[in-house]
Design goal:
Layout (H helix, E strand, L loop, with lengths): L2 H16 L22 E2 L7 E2 L7 E5 H6 L5 H5 L5 E4 L9 E4 L10 E5 L2 E2 L18 E8 L3 H4 L6 E7 L9 E10 L3 E11 L3 E12 L8 E14 L2 E15 L4 E4 L4 E2 H4 L10 E17 L2 E18 L6 E20 L3 E20 L6 E21 L2 E20 L5 E19 L2 E12 L16 E13 L3 E13 L2 E4 L4 E4 L3 E15 L2 E14 L3 E2 L2 E2 L11 E9 L5 E10 L19 E11 L4 E8 L7 E6 L9 E5 L4 E9 L1
Parallel strand pairs: 6-9
Antiparallel strand pairs: 1-2, 3-8, 4-5, 6-7, 8-9, 10-11, 10-39, 11-12, 12-13, 13-14, 14-17, 15-16, 15-38, 17-18, 18-19, 19-20, 20-21, 21-22, 22-23, 23-24, 24-25, 25-26, 26-29, 27-28, 29-30, 30-33, 31-32, 33-34, 34-35, 35-36, 36-39, 37-38
């Protein structure tokens, strides 16, 4: 490997640690949570508060109680139990796993938008969102919209949108509330969470903090994470103003992959899964965010406005036989949005809005093998306007029509080393037409069609000979919903036909526009209250991710499977609550086989194996002030990996690399409340 290739490879090396092109599945996959609550008010699908039954698509809602009963220790672990959501882990840190909705594989984080209180968390680089800044205990609910949200949110939402909504004040209305949770578990895990709130009729103050120390499953995978935040909300007769701030610091060792070379008789994955090939590699990240959110009644409608600032600094090191590399990065992002909801004749609604993003990235790679560093500066500007009309055509029929116009400017300057310069401006549009029809007897039908898009982020603009084209997709979805007093179910079919899909190429260490691809699938989920104390839930998804045409390295890709996308996934769970004080949850999770990264030719003899995990949790409230839980993930200590990459790109044999996930883990927690 020559020096230029090493420099180009360094981008991927540092994207991965931060959750880039190879991040994902939480190494400890949690107990499945019940399928979404169907009748609540949600904000995600239309970007303003709208009753779930009036949304153009079905919004899944994970409640605080469902989160509490799950054995998940991170948001990613929790999401991995939900229909059609897969996570991929290459770092060993569960809160850095990449979330992939509806089969995008390596580009999952670029096609799934994750929000905290409506504020985008996706970084304008290759890293996936680090969601450990908000502890699970501070989450009120999680809203999941499967399918494109490009009209409401802009690019990068073809797979879907996930909105994490945090708690504000005390749920029982107490003017003062506080809690402290101490946890100990496998791999020397030690964690402390604390929260405090004050509230009265006009003001609510919230603050929280978390400190985590763990060795994680593998050597050189020690993690130190400290996070905290706070908010103050002022309410008045016609609206409210909320100020918030969050911070997180994380230092993480990166153990690297395990080599499997059948020809040489080497199998580090089997013989030493906890070992490391990179004993000195690490990444150190500091993230700070603050902002203001305003809700104000104006005339007959409601105005929603926000301005947000997020800064991320990263320093990391990777060593190899070809030389050491140091990565430094400073990312500065500013986002803002303005939306207005106008009800019309009590049955219809008009939503209009505008949003912006300004992103400035300064980054460099320094090499022990070369006196010349790679350094670059990338500026991205996004401006968008959108409108959505919701029409109650009949008492049982609701039609939604929306459109967006988006402006994007990318300005890349190479300050030193390998790379080029580019200054590109593009304009794109998105649209959506949706129908929701009540059928009676608890059944309803919905369908939608639209166009979505994605622009390349700052990292993806590097090391390319010509600027990447925007990714576009024609999206279609049909679904049937059913619910009764004790049960609910959803059956959905979807298809996305993508052009110029943006994805990382491990061979060239750069990002490319793929030949035409397709995602299509069927999702089935349901829940049933068997008795007053026993609830059951389950989901099943079939996803087909294929190339529609094209060639690579002389191989015809037509009909080939896109790597890292399992065709089958399923979850099943049960919760037993014999008393108000005691609960017991048990869940199983199945993830099917998937092609390894770099196997677009579909010729490699080895795939990522399928796996089935059993997870559980028991909780008991001793009194109103003291409670405890015990969670076990991967109960039967199953060996599995969610990310692997083959050497070379064609042929049936050769070596490959796997990133082992964690074996059995146990976590015990005690919570004190005031």
């Amino acid at each position: 490997m020559n020096a230029r290739l090493i420099r180009r490879a360094s981008l991927f090396v540092w994207a991965m640690p931060t959750l880039a092109a190879a991040q994902s599945v939480s190494s400890e996959t949690p107990a499945s949570s019940p399928v979404p609550e169907l009748g609540s008010v949600t904000v995600t699908a239309s970007r303003v508060p709208v009753a779930n039954d009036d949304q153009p698509v079905q919004v899944s809602v994970l409640t605080e109680d469902q989160i509490r009963r799950s054995s998940a220790t991170t948001v990613q672990e929790l999401l991995s139990t939900q229909t059609g959501i897969h996570t991929i882990d290459s770092t060993g840190a569960a809160d850095q796993a990449m979330v992939d909705m509806r089969g995008f594989g390596l580009s999952g984080s670029g096609n799934t938008l994750i929000l905290i209180d409506g504020v985008p968390q996706n970084n304008n680089d290759l890293s996936t969102p680090v969601l450990g800044a908000v502890p699970l205990s501070r989450i009120e609910r999680i809203e999941i919209v499967r399918g494109s949200g490009s009209v409401q949110y802009g690019g990068g939402t073809t797979g879907g949108v996930i909105n994490i909504l945090t708690k504000r004040g005390s749920a029982d209305g107490e003017p003062v509330a506080a809690s402290v949770t101490g946890s100990v578990g496998s791999h020397q895990r030690r964690q402390v969470d604390a929260a405090f709130s004050l509230q009265n009729e006009h003001i609510t103050v919230d603050a929280y903090g978390q400190s985590l120390r763990t060795d994680n499953y593998r050597d050189n995978n020690r993690e130190q994470r400290d996070s905290g935040g706070g908010s103050i909300t002022f309410r008045h007769d016609n609206g409210q103003i909320r100020l918030y701030a969050r911070t997180m610091h994380q230092k993480l060792g990166l153990p690297g992959p395990r080599l499997v070379d059948p020809a040489a008789g080497i199998n580090q994955y089997r013989d030493d899964p906890r070992g490391t090939s990179t004993p000195d590699d690490y990444v150190d990240t500091q993230t700070d965010a603050f902002g203001i959110q305003v809700e104000q009644r104006i005339g007959a409608g409601m105005l929603y406005a926000e301005m947000n600032q997020r800064d991320k600094t990263l320093h990391g090191f990777t060593g190899s036989a070809y030389g050491d590399i140091w990565r430094d990065q400073d990312l500065d992002e500013r986002t803002g949005s303005l939306r207005y909801l106008l009800p019309i004749a009590e049955k219809h609604a008009l939503i209009v809005g505008a949003d912006m993003l300004d992103s400035d990235l300064d980054a460099s790679n320094t090499y022990s093998s070369s006196p010349l560093a790679d350094a670059w500066r990338a500026k991205q500007r996004r401006r968008g306007v959108f409108a959505e009309v919701q029409v109650q055509a009949t008492e049982t029929t609701r039609i939604t029509l929306g459109g967006r116009r988006q402006y994007a400017n990318d300005d890349l300057k190479t300050l030193s080393g390998y790379g080029g310069n580019a200054d590109v401006t593009r304009r794109l549009g998105a649209w959506q037409l949706a129908l929701r029809q009540e059928l009676g007897a608890g059944f309803s039908f919905y369908g939608k069609a639209g166009r979505s898009f994605r622009f390349a982020n700052s990292d993806e603009t590097l090391y390319v000979s010509t600027p990447l084209q925007p990714q576009t997709s024609m999206d279609k979805e049909l679904g049937i919903l059913w619910r009764s007093e004790a049960s609910s179910a959803r059956l959905t079919w979807f298809r996305y036909d993508l052009t110029n899909e943006i994805q990382y190429n491990p061979l060239t260490f750069s990002n490319v526009n793929l030949d035409p691809t397709r995602r299509q699938g069927i999702e089935l989920e349901g829940e049933h209250q068997l008795t007053p104390s026993v609830s059951l839930n389950g989901n099943l998804s079939w996803t087909q991710a294929t190339f529609r045409s094209g060639t690579a390295n002389g191989v015809n890709l037509t009909g080939n499977t896109v790597p890292l996308v399992p065709k089958w996934m399923a979850n099943v769970g049960a919760t037993w609550r014999p008393t108000d004080k005691l609960f017991l949850s048990l869940a199983g999770q199945y993830v099917g086989k998937a092609r390894m990264d770099n196997d677009q030719a579909n010729q490699f003899d080895h795939q990522l194996d399928d796996y089935f995990l059993v997870n559980g949790k028991v909780g008991y409230a001793f009194n109103k002030h003291v409670s405890g839980t015990l969670a076990v993930n991967n109960l039967f200590d199953r060996e599995y990996a969610t990310y692997g990459i083959r050497s070379g790109s064609t042929g049936g044999s050769g070596s490959y690399y796997l990133y082992p996930a964690s074996g059995r883990t146990v976590l015990a927690s005690v919570t004190l409340r005031y």
